[in-house]
Design a protein that fits this description.
Elements (H helix, E strand, L loop, with lengths): L5 E7 L2 E9 L12 E2 L3 H14 L24 E2 L20 E6 L2 E5 L1 H5 L8 E3 L2 E3 L9 E9 L2 H17 L2 E8 L2 E10 L2 E7 L17 E2 H13 L12 H14 L18 H11 L50 E2 L5
Parallel strand pairs: 1-7, 13-14
Antiparallel strand pairs: 1-2, 2-9, 3-4, 5-6, 8-10, 9-12, 10-11, 11-12
Helix pairs in contact: 4-6
C-alpha cells in the first residue's frame, strides 16, 4: 500500500467515496552538492585555533590539485557550513520553536499567525474533491499541468464506487475537473481513470501561465521542404520509452568526481554550437540522406494545399489567460491554422 500524502473524499453529485492520494512521481537520486567553506591562505593559518575553540568536527575532504594550482592550496581544509535562523540585529541564534509564520504588511511590520488560526481557514476542498464538471482530455493544454498523483480507493467499499465513476468517464470519453487544497493553496485538478483507481493532476492557475508571444506567420511555405521534413520525422517516429533516456549531465558529474578523487587533471569538453542554416533546402536534403537506410527510396512529391487541422485546445482552453483577448491575426476555429504552402517553381 503506497504512502498517503492526502486523505479525503471524491464526490460526484450525492455519491462520495473515501480516497487517498500518493505522489505519482519521485526525484531520482542525483549527486548532492553542499555549500562549503574553503578559507583563503590567510584564514587557513587561524583555522586550527578557531576549530578548537568551537569544537568543530573535521569534515574536510582531500583537495586535489588542478593544472596550475598552488601546492599550498592542497592543505587548505574545506568545511561544510550550516545555515541557522538568527537575529539579524544581534546575530544570536533563534530557537526553532520561536519561529512562526507572518505577513509583512508594511516594511518591518508583520502580522503573525498561529497554527490554529491557519487551520481554521480550511475550506471544503481541504477534505473533498468535488467533480464539478467534465471536459474532453484534449481541451486542457498541457502547459497547465503541475504535479501528478495517483488516486486510490480508501477501503474495500470505495473500490466499487470508484470503478463505477471511472467506467462512466471512460465511456463518455471525458475527464473530471474539481478543486483540491494542498499546502495552503487551492488548485483546480484534473482526474482521469486509471484501472481500479485514477490519476490526479493539479493544474496551474490562469495567472501562472504566460501567454505566448509568437510572431505572425509571413509568406507561404515551400511544399517540397515540408515534404522532406515530414520524411525525416517519419523515419524517427516510434513509441515513447522513458527508460531509454538518461541524465548525461549527472553521468559527466560522476566522471568528474571520480577523476578528482584520483587526482587526474580535468580537461573541459567543448560543446560546439551548430552553424547557422544558410540554404534550408540543401540542409534538409543532407539530413534526409543521413537518416536510416529505410529512408532510401523515399520519393518527395509536391503536396497540394490541405486544410490544416485546427488545434482544439487553443480556442477552448479550460483556464484562459486572464485579460487576454483574441488578436486580429489569430485564426478562427473554422479556419485552418497552418500557413499556406507555396509550390516551388521549376527552374
Amino acid at each position: 500500500m503506497p504512502r498517503a500524502s492526502w486523505k479525503g473524499f471524491l464526490r460526484l453529485s450525492l455519491v462520495s467515496c473515501p480516497i487517498y492520494l500518493s505522489p505519482a512521481t519521485t526525484r531520482t537520486k542525483s549527486i548532492r552538492q553542499h555549500q562549503v567553506w574553503q578559507p583563503t591562505s590567510a584564514d587557513a593559518e587561524d583555522l586550527p585555533d578557531r576549530a578548537r575553540e568551537q569544537d568543530v568536527p573535521d569534515r574536510s575532504a582531500p583537495m586535489l590539485a588542478h593544472d596550475g594550482e598552488d601546492e599550498a592550496d592542497q592543505t587548505r581544509p574545506t568545511t561544510r557550513i550550516s545555515l541557522q535562523p538568527h537575529d539579524p540585529r544581534t546575530g544570536e541564534e533563534v530557537e526553532k520553536e520561536e519561529v512562526v509564520k507572518g505577513y509583512e504588511y508594511r516594511r518591518g511590520q508583520f502580522i503573525t499567525f498561529t497554527a490554529q488560526e491557519l487551520k481554521a481557514l480550511d475550506v471544503e476542498s481541504s477534505k473533498i474533491i468535488d467533480l464539478e464538471s467534465f471536459v474532453q482530455r484534449g481541451d486542457i493544454d498541457p502547459v497547465y499541468f503541475n504535479n501528478a498523483y495517483y488516486l486510490y480507493p480508501d477501503g474495500p467499499i470505495a473500490i466499487e464506487t470508484l470503478r463505477v465513476i471511472g467506467a462512466a468517464m471512460v465511456e463518455a470519453g471525458v475527464v473530471g475537473i474539481g478543486r483540491l487544497t494542498l499546502s495552503q493553496r487551492e488548485r483546480m485538478v484534473m482526474v482521469e481513470p486509471r484501472g481500479t483507481g485514477m490519476a490526479l493532476f493539479t493544474l496551474r492557475a490562469a495567472d501562472e501561465v504566460r501567454a505566448s508571444q509568437f510572431g505572425a506567420a509571413e509568406g507561404d511555405l515551400d511544399a517540397e521542404m515540408v515534404a522532406i521534413a515530414g520524411a525525416i520525422i517519419k523515419q524517427r517516429t516510434g513509441t515513447f520509452d522513458p527508460s531509454t533516456y538518461r541524465d548525461r549531465y549527472q553521468e559527466a558529474l560522476r566522471e568528474l568526481i571520480a577523476a578528482k578523487m584520483k587526482g587526474v587533471a580535468i580537461k573541459p569538453k567543448e560543446v560546439s554550437a551548430p552553424p547557422p542554416v544558410i540554404d534550408l533546402m540543401a540542409a534538409l536534403k543532407r539530413c534526409l540522406a543521413q537518416e536510416a537506410p529505410a529512408a532510401k527510396g523515399v520519393r518527395v512529391t509536391k503536396q497540394k494545399r490541405t486544410k490544416a487541422v485546427t488545434d482544439r485546445r487553443q480556442p477552448s482552453l479550460l483556464l484562459p489567460i486572464s485579460g487576454s483577448v483574441q488578436r486580429k491575426d489569430e485564426p478562427n476555429a473554422e479556419e485552418p491554422t497552418g500557413s499556406p504552402i507555396r509550390r516551388r517553381k521549376k527552374a
